[in-house]
Structures are given as structure tokens and as C-alpha cells.
């Protein structure tokens, strides 16, 4: 008996020494981001422009790591600074809350409220990570950022490739629309109907310095009530280059619907955007990054409709933006942009001017 | 008998729990051996950092040292000193990133490697091509993203953390060299 105890003491003390070498300590971490926006827009023919000052998003990240393998991560978001019960007047959302098991570089899993991996902005939406004041329209109408829900994911990294695969709650087929695509169909983890699950997979390649390129596939036979579903497939590709003072982003995506059996008329939504910017920071010898940039985007949430006709033009928008972003450090950004958005059917144009300030930590 | 079984189980779990410790040391020495050649001899030392030097570097780089010591392997081939391998950690978003920098005898970086990355996101900093950017850098280098280091989309925090972490070791090099060259 005694020798066991001695042996145990020996092993415990030697393990303690080893544990020191392991560097990890259990720890809770706080993080967050937020953004203040000043938006001005004037529609063709209108006598007055609309002006708003909006603290669009305030987010707290809270995480805890029990061991280096087991941790918890969450993201709580207050949108539009005030909640009074309906979405238009503000939202309080738990966008992420999951248990993470990180086995090694090649494999880990997450269970809880998670993010499907589609495009850049859905998983990485901190304001200093995109150039425009508002998130790209593409990341609203084609990929319904922030798209989150209850489910599980596996992820990992193999050499220069990384992957994530997600199974989560599906979309509400009855809320898929010509004007907003799948945006209103998100169930947001709220007693989500699990009749039909959503499957999502993404692969990225990081082998060239400054470049990330990848694509994703999402499929859900969106449940729309008894015996009715709209088969929904979102395929997108994305690439971003940030090196040699050049910042270039391109994203392109299609949503294909099949709801003919229940008389759903939309067959396809499509969109893309590209950003081109140049960092003047080092040539002007200033601390931080000063980036003039240009964006062109086009999207159509009902690009192909049964019977065709003007229905295919009513939700088709073209937009350009010219902007200037200043990042005194990676975590803080000040933004300004100016541009125009035009509807293809009405030919009506909105002139837009936006100012923004954002942070992350 | 019951107690014996419990003790054995306990031993088993205690050892499982701390297994990665050996893994870090083994992996580090494997990396150094591969880099320096198998004829190289390694001498390990836990090196306490002079508090004044530690503070000066922390202020200059704007990042704290993980501990008040670093792990150093002195690399010799025969009688001649080839360089030093230095193991340290920086915090990413919330977990330590364990990394290794191998220096020549003048303080120039020969190679850099991520020994252990623990977060779900940002692991792209372990990519060989990206880490190769540090090779050849020394005290005079900027260690600045966009100047001599490229950004990685989706790994902003890790890129900043590791860049500063490597810079700290570069600034610490002369201290390391003076402290253990003749040991």
C-alpha cells in the first residue's frame, strides 16, 4: 500500500513538472466588437434624404477553456442598441454558444449554436475585417449574414487546406422570398424546426502568402409545412488577397431552389461583389493603414423565376461604392463610403453616403 | 485491492492528462534535429530572463512575455556553436501558441515553427510559406504586417500575436547568446 502511495506521489510531482511544460492554464476570456454608423440615402425624385445615426452592433465574446482540448465559446449581440420586442426596433441574439473539442490541428468539433461556413463575412464579421461601413449587400441577400443556428460541426487543417462541415437546423421554407432570399428563413436557434437538417461544407486554401481562396456548399430541403419543402442549394466561391499593399476581395454565389411541387416560383438567386483597395500607409509613412477602395456589386434574389418576365428584374440591383478606410491599428477602423444603388426594373437610384467607426478586441 | 485499482486508474488518468508535455519537448527536439542535422548535439536550458531586459522588450514590442523564462537549446556540431533554438509562447485569442525560433550565432532567424496551436481558428499561421517570411530577419527588421509580414485572412489576432512574439525573441537574442554561449 505504502509503495503505491509513494509511487503516486512520485508520478504526481513529475506530472506537475510536465504540466508546467504544457503552458496551458484554464482561463475565461472576454472579447467583443461594435460599430457606429451614420447613413445618408437619397432616392431619385425624393425631396429629402434619410439620415440615421445607428449604433448598429454591440457584441460580447465570452469564452472559457477548461483544458486545451475542451472549451466553450459564445457571441452575444445587441443590434440597433435597443430592444422593444420586434426585429425592426432591435435584436438581442445569441449568435454563437458552443462546446469546442480541439483534438489536434486536423480535427475538432463544435456542438451548440454555431455558424455555417459560407463566404468571408458570416464567420468573420468584425468591422475592421471588411472595408465598407455596412457589410456587403452580398453578405446580406445571398449569404444571410449572420447565419447561425443549432447544430454540430467538425473542422480542421491539413497542410495548406482547412475545412469545416456543419449539420444544423434547416431553413423555414415558407419564409424564403423573392425580395430577401433565404434571409428571413433563418430560424436563429429559436425552437428551430428540425424536420429537415441543413448540411454545409467549406474548404479553403491558404498556401500562397496573403491569399485565401475557397468555396462552400450548403443544402437544405427547407421545410415549409406538411409535405411541402423547397430544396435549397447555396454554392459560393470566395478569394481574398492582402499583401504588397493590395487588398482585393471577390465573392460569387448562387442559390438554386426547387419548390415546383408546392408552386414556389423562384428558381435561382445570384450575386457577387469585388473590392479593390490599396494601402497608402507605408508610402505616406503613417502609423496604420489608409485604404482607398472601390467596390462593385450586383445581386438578384429572384434571378430566375418560373415564367420569367419582369419578375426577374424586380429584385436585381447594381451598386458601386467608393470608400476610404483608416485603421490606426488592426483592431480599430474608421470608414467612409459614397456610392449609388440602382434597381433594374424601376431604374430608380439611391445615392448613398456612410460614415462608420468600429472596433474589435 | 479496490484502493489499488483506484490508484492505478488515477495514475493512468494523471499520465494521460499530462501526456502533451512530453509531446512538446519531443516535437521541439525533432524539429531542431531535422533542421540542424543529426550530427548536431543539443543542450537544453531553462533560461530566466533578466527583469530589466524583460521589461524593456515588453515596452518596445507592446506584448508581455508569457513567463519569466524561455527554453533554449544550444546547438553544437562538434566543437562549433551553430546557433540556438528558443521555445516560447504567446496568447492568441485565449490559448497559448507554442512556437520555436532557431537563430544562427549572429541573431538572424534561420527558421520558425509552430510547435502547438490550440485554437479552432487562426491555425493558418503554422503554414510553412507564411513562416518562411521570418527567415533571415533580425534586430533591424520591422516585424510589421504589410511591410515585411503578410496578413492572413481569418487569423488577424494570431498573426499579430506571433509576429510580436518572434520579435521579442529577436530582441532577447543578445541576452540569450551572452548568457549561455560559454555554458
Strand residues, percent of chain A: over 45%
Helix content of chain B: 40-55%
Low-confidence stretches of chain A: 13-20
Distance between the termini of chain A: 53 Å
Give a description of the structure:
The complex is a heterodimer of chains A (361) and B (183). Helices cover 7% and strands 55% of the residues of chain A. By secondary structure, chain A is mainly beta. Chain A has one domain: Porin, CATH 2.40.160. In chain A, strands 1-2-3-4-5-6-7-8-9-10-11-12-13-14-15-16 form a 16-stranded antiparallel β-barrel. Chain B has 4 helices and 5 strands. About 4% of the residues of chain B have low confidence. Chain B has one domain. Chain B is 41% helix and 25% strand. Chain B has a 5-stranded antiparallel sheet, sandwiched between helices. In chain B, a hairpin with a 5-residue loop joins β4 and β5.
Task: Give the gist of this structure.
Chain A has 361 residues and is mainly beta.
Amino acid at each position: 500500500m505504502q509503495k503505491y502511495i509513494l509511487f503516486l506521489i512520485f508520478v504526481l510531482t513529475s506530472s506537475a513538472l510536465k504540466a508546467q511544460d504544457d503552458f496551458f492554464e484554464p482561463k475565461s476570456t472576454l472579447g467583443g466588437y461594435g460599430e457606429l454608423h451614420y447613413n445618408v440615402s437619397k432616392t431619385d425624385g425624393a425631396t429629402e434624404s434619410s439620415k440615421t445615426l445607428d449604433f448598429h452592433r454591440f457584441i460580447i465574446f465570452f469564452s472559457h477553456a477548461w483544458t486545451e482540448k475542451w472549451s466553450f465559446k459564445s457571441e452575444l449581440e445587441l443590434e440597433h442598441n435597443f430592444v422593444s420586442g420586434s426585429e425592426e426596433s432591435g435584436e438581442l441574439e445569441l449568435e454563437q454558444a458552443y462546446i469546442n473539442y480541439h483534438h489536434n490541428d486536423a480535427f475538432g468539433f463544435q456542438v451548440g449554436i454555431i455558424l455555417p461556413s459560407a463566404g468571408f463575412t458570416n464567420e468573420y464579421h468584425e468591422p475592421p475585417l471588411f472595408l465598407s461601413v455596412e457589410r456587403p449587400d452580398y453578405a446580406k441577400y445571398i449569404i444571410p449574414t449572420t447565419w447561425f443556428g443549432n447544430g454540430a460541426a467538425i473542422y480542421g487543417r491539413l497542410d495548406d487546406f482547412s475545412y469545416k462541415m456543419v449539420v444544423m437546423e434547416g431553413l423555414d421554407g415558407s419564409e424564403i422570398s423573392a425580395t430577401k432570399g433565404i434571409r428571413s428563413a433563418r430560424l436563429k436557434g429559436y425552437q428551430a424546426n428540425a424536420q429537415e437538417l441543413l448540411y454545409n461544407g467549406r474548404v479553403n486554401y491558404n498556401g500562397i502568402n496573403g491569399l485565401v481562396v475557397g468555396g462552400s456548399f450548403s443544402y437544405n430541403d427547407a421545410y415549409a409545412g406538411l409535405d411541402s419543402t423547397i430544396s435549397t442549394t447555396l454554392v459560393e466561391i470566395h478569394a481574398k488577397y492582402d499583401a504588397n499593399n493590395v487588398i482585393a476581395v471577390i465573392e460569387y454565389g448562387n442559390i438554386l431552389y426547387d419548390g415546383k411541387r408546392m408552386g414556389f416560383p423562384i428558381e435561382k438567386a445570384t450575386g457577387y461583389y469585388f473590392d479593390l483597395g490599396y494601402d497608402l500607409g507605408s508610402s505616406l509613412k503613417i502609423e496604420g493603414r489608409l485604404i482607398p477602395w472601390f467596390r462593385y456589386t450586383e445581386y438578384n434574389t429572384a434571378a430566375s423565376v418560373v415564367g420569367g418576365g419582369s419578375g426577374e428584374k424586380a429584385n436585381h440591383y447594381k451598386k458601386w461604392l467608393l470608400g476610404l478606410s483608416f485603421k490606426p491599428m488592426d483592431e480599430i477602423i474608421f470608414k467612409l463610403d459614397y456610392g449609388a444603388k440602382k434597381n433594374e426594373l424601376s431604374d430608380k437610384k439611391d445615392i448613398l453616403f456612410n460614415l462608420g467607426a468600429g472596433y474589435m478586441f | 485491492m479496490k484502493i489499488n485499482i483506484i490508484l492505478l486508474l488515477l495514475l493512468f488518468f494523471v499520465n494521460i492528462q499530462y501526456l502533451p508535455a512530453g509531446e512538446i519537448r519531443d516535437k521541439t527536439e525533432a524539429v531542431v534535429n531535422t533542421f540542424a542535422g543529426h550530427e548536431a548535439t543539443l543542450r537544453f536550458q531553462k533560461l530566466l530572463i533578466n527583469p530589466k531586459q524583460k521589461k524593456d522588450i515588453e515596452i518596445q514590442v507592446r506584448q508581455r512575455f508569457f513567463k519569466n523564462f524561455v527554453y533554449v537549446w544550444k546547438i553544437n556540431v562538434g566543437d562549433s556553436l551553430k546557433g540556438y533554438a528558443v521555445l516560447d509562447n504567446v496568447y492568441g485569442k485565449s490559448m497559448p501558441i507554442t512556437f520555436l525560433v532557431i537563430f544562427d550565432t549572429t541573431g538572424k532567424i534561420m527558421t520558425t515553427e509552430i510547435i502547438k496551436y490550440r485554437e479552432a481558428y487562426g491555425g493558418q499561421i503554422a503554414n510553412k510559406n507564411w513562416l518562411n517570411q521570418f527567415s533571415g530577419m533580425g534586430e533591424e527588421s520591422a516585424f510589421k504586417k504589410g511591410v515585411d509580414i503578410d496578413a492572413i485572412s481569418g487569423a488577424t489576432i494570431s498573426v499579430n500575436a506571433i509576429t510580436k512574439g518572434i520579435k521579442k525573441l529577436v530582441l532577447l537574442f543578445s541576452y540569450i547568446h551572452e548568457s549561455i554561449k560559454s555554458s
